[in-house]
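Hello,

Our lab assistant flagged a job as stuck in the queue for most of the afternoon. It eventually completed. Since we weren't sure the result was trustworthy after the delay, we are filing this so someone can double-check. Below is the sequence as submitted and the structure that was eventually returned. Let us know if re-running is recommended.
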Amino acid sequence: MKTNYIDNEEKELMDSLDGIDLSKIKTDDKNSKLLQKSAKSFVKKEETKMNIRISSNELDKIKAKAEQERDRSNCREL
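-- returned structure --
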């Protein structure tokens, strides 16, 4: 498990779970599948969100650069 960027509380939780034999925990297949689906959906949503603050001048530069890249890729397709 990748453990970068965890705080002390998260580390304590991970350490406490290390001693538990999870194979002995009974599972409910219906709820298990629902939880897996929900977790995957949540992770997928979190991976696509990003909020940054930049000046309008910087945003204009980024848009211009993206347009140049798009124009270059369109020229290659021809």
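-- support follow-up --
The delay was a queue issue, not a problem with the job. The result is valid. The chain is about 70% helix and 0% strand. The chain has one domain: 8-77.
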